[in-house]
Structure formats: structure tokens, C-alpha cells
Amino acid sequence: MAFQWQTFKTRALTAIVFVVIMAAGLFTGKWSFFILFSFVHFGCWVEYQKLVSKFNPDYGQITPFHKYGIMVAGWCLLLYFTNYELHINDWYFTEIGLVLGAILIIVLPIVALIKEKVAFVKNMSFSLLGIIYISLSLGLLMYLRNHWNEENYRLNMTIPLLIIFTVWVNDTMAYIVGSLIGKTPLSPISPKKTWEGTIGGTILAIVVMVLIAHFTGRLSLLHTAIIAGIAAITGTLGDLFKSKLKRMAGVKDSGNIMPGHGGFLDRFDSMLFAATAVWFYVVIFLD
User: Fold this and answer.
1) Mind listing the pLDDT tens digit for each residue in 81-117?
2) How far is CA 137 from CA 89, 160, 252, in A?
């Protein structure tokens, strides 16, 4: 696969704008983090529903209440995992997410069964998959941002940033390495991905993250290397999963909000899988 400078330039310029927006959300505070990933959540859901509707036309016929209600139900997971850190007066987002989410989980299937009738099980299954794939993943990322007390507050910033930066570095390095020396296809699902690029991206992502950990001292080098490895590997699986959805839908990109990078799912697919995998590691070994 020849290295395409114009493609790389477009991706790089888009990435700069993307990084500026992301940085504002990641570093300003817990509110900005929540707002940023709430926006990402709904953007991913819109694209996910469009993809599913292309290879499963029945899903395109769900009622507006089902279509938007499932998005809000999923968003309730983000609210719930704010861990009582965000509130307006005495209205805590965690409690709002728990109550509203419980109501929607009960009401949505009932309304869908009454109004939609055909393909009920299949349509609800795709909606449940979206909850797990998008909402739970971002909810667990929110958990990692709001979990620790002030003594370990540095982990509230370090772990989410480690996940996000790892998948960015892995994605970029895998593209560069694969473009330069890639010869062996990784999977028929994504023909442009190569084993050389995948392995090179993973190794370089771990090296970069360990170097950052060495100079910042925010997390041990061992934990950093393991988490970076987990995020890089599962991030690649997340990218393949999204590629499978796009292949089934017969489209090149999940959206077009970011030139050279596609849509929300194209940009955050790796992070969705990585956040869930890293959450398990953190709960077992760092909690």
C-alpha cells in the first residue's frame, strides 16, 4: 500500500481541529468532559442507527419514540456514571440517570411492541446492541473520569487520557507503518489494515505512553504499558467491528463530519472497545 501524502495531509489537518475541540473538553473540567462525550454519544447513535437501517430496513421503520428514546436511555448511563460529581442544586445526574433510565427501559419495549409489531425482537436486539456498544462504553469512560476521591484525583484524569491518547497514537502509527511496510492483510473485513501496521502501531503506542508516564510520573510504567497495550489491541478490534457494520451497510464511512476521518463512529470506534476493556483492568488491579 503506497503512502498517500494528500490523504495523510487531510487527515492531519482534520486531526488538529479535532484535537483542539477534544482538548477543550478533556482538560477544562468534569462538566466539559461530560458535555463533550454526551455530544459524541448522540453523534455515534445517529450514525449507528443509519448503518443498521441500511442492512436491516425494518430498523428504519421504528417509531420516533423508539429511535430517540433509546438514545436517551443510553445517555442515562453517562448520567449515572457521573458518580454524584455533577449536579444542579440538589438534582444529581446519577439519580436522574437511574430513575429516567429505569422508566425508559420499562416503557420503551412496551411502546415498541404495541406500535411496531413486526420485527420487534430483531429491532429491540439492535437497540440493545447499541446500548452496549456505544452507551455502556462511554458510560464506563465517564466512570473512570469520576470514580476516585481527591487523594487519587490524578487517576480521574490519567486513565481516560491514557485510553484516548493510546488509540490516537495507535491509529496514526498503524496507518504510517502499514503504509510504509505493510504487506500482510490483517482481516478481510478491513483490507487496508495489515499485520505489520497493527503490530507496529501497538508497539509504538505502548512506547509513547510509557515515555509520557516516565516524564509525568502520574502512573507506574507497568500499569501504563499494560493499559496502553489493552487499549491498542481492543481498539483495533473496535475498528474492525465498525468496519464490519459499514461493510454490511455498504458504505465507506459512518458519516462525514470529519474530512479524512469520516464520522463519529469512524473516529471513536476504537475508544468504545478500549474504554470497556480498560475499565475491567482498572477495577481489578487499580481500584
Assistant:
1) 999 999 999 999 999 999 999 999 999 999 999 998 7
2) 28, 12, 24
